[in-house]
Amino acid sequence: MGPDQRPAGDYADRMADTPPGDAPPPPVPAVPPPGSATPRMPLRRLGWPRLVALAVVVLVIAVGAVFILYRLGSNLGPQALLVGVVAAILPVPVLVACFLWLDRYEPEPLRYLIFCFAWGAFVSTSIAINVNEGFAGLFKAWGLPAALTAVLVAPFIEELTKAAGPILLLIFRRREFSGITDGLVYCGLSAVGFAMVENILYLGGYGYRAGVQEYGPATGAQQVIAIFIVRILLFGFAHPLFTSMTGVGLGIAARTADRRVRVLAPIAGLLVAMMLHGTWNLLPTLAVSIGQPVIVLYGYIGVMVPIFFAMVGLAIWLRAWEGRLTERILPDYVRAGWLTPPEVAALGSLGRRHAARTWARRVAGEGGVKAMRGYQFAATRLALLRDGMRRGLDRKPAERDRTTREERELLDAIAAYRAFFVGRDPQAPVGVWDGRSYHLRFPDGSQRAVEAPDEPVVPIPVVLAPPPPPAYPAGYGPPGWYGPRPATPWPPGA
């Protein structure tokens, strides 16, 4: 289903469209005094089930971390372990920053990002080490080459375990998956954690420890540098690239209402990741078997590099699509009187968002910047939520009720953030949006109504006017206005 398609009878139609009419503009509400606390999104309370689940997750990751530390320490020794840790950590901030850059429009909760990274670093590696070594022993006992482990077993178990953490998030926290971008971020961070621990083994064991045992510390340092150049600088994108295929499948599953696609898309992505990983491991195996190292170069340039740049292009396009989503979805709320055209225009690109934060800092200081960031995050979440309504993602009544509550929370948060910085700019006339036109009040006291232009040109919010009482359904409060509102924003049958 395309982004702008909406199924018949979609419950997204429950959002009341209440044109305000031609009432005279109300007075501008008082802005918070300087130094007042910046509003925040409502916090979710942790119930006993979530606390138990959190404790289990922390325990599993902690057990994996202790196992990995013991295993690497006993195999490498303290000196080689330290060298491996230092060298392997160096590229991690760069890779993590790339994924965080990709997720700037709607940043995911930090706890879930840490969970995915820790899952890949400790849980996935713990399982993969034991499974790979177990099959290597079986192949040796059967008289088969140990290299089969890298080609047949490692791709399967490593991709499956790296994806297991993000898959758990999709199952139990589906609302934190807003599309393919989130799938790339979650799976990418899991792969970065996995690669970090694997690099510790290669750099500290096959590099420093082997070199020291053979010729001394100088040779060990040289081998660490050589492995760092080849494994990290040249091939450091490998694990994130493989697992990103699973991320695409998870992102597709998160934004579709078709049950078959929800199941088949992650499976297809996981299979592609395994095949790509297996092909990557097959190249050096073939090169050694037939004595042609150039095979690795051909595979690297002819297969992996094009796929890598294709995924980078897809990620950048998806990032821009997420920004344009607000321009496609939020006009629904403009027509209903909750937002203004300039606000939607200010959310369409990262450049416009930065300009809005710069303006907020000028008129309201650092508190205004925080409020504008919160406002932009809430507006993006609102667009994603309503896009999910249009797609029919929530099938059960409980899910629809939860979506309605979350929509109300986001609208309330947007109004609270807006109140922190609107009306503070002494260089701009006071503007009131009534759903059809602007009512501008100038410094000389004059007042004039101005129709909205085809392309909004003022990327800052203005005040929203409440419609006259006859325009509302019974018990329905004014959209976007600062004041008491009824507890239930969407009356039954609206």
Describe the structure.
By secondary structure, this protein is mainly alpha-helical. Helices cover 66% and strands 3% of the residues. It is built from 14 helices and four strands. It has helices at 48-76, 78-89, 92-102, 110-141, 147-172, 180-214, 217-234, 238-254, 259-290, 294-329, 331-335, 341-345, 350-391, 397-421; strands at residues 430-433, 437-441, 447-451, 463-464. The protein has a four-stranded mixed sheet, with no helix packed on it. A hairpin with a 5-residue loop joins strand 2 (437-441) and strand 3 (447-451). The radius of gyration is 27 Å and the shape is elongated. The two termini are 25 Å apart. The model is unreliable at 1-29, 457-461 and 467-494 (pLDDT under 50).
Structural class: mainly alpha
Terminal-residue CA separation: 25 Å
Secondary-structure element sequence?
HHHHHHHHHHHHHHEEEE
Number of helices: 14
Mean pLDDT: 80
In total, the number of strands is 4
Strand content: under 5%
Give the neighbour order of strands across the main sheet: 3-2-1-4
Largest sheet: 4 strands, mixed
SSE diagram, text form:
Elements: H1 48-76, H2 78-89, H3 92-102, H4 110-141, H5 147-172, H6 180-214, H7 217-234, H8 238-254, H9 259-290, H10 294-329, H11 331-335, H12 341-345, H13 350-391, H14 397-421, E1 430-433, E2 437-441, E3 447-451, E4 463-464
Parallel strand pairs: 1-4
Antiparallel strand pairs: 1-2, 2-3
Helix pairs in contact: 1-2, 1-4, 1-6, 2-6, 3-6, 4-5, 4-6, 5-6, 5-8, 5-9, 6-7, 6-8, 8-9, 9-10, 10-13, 13-14
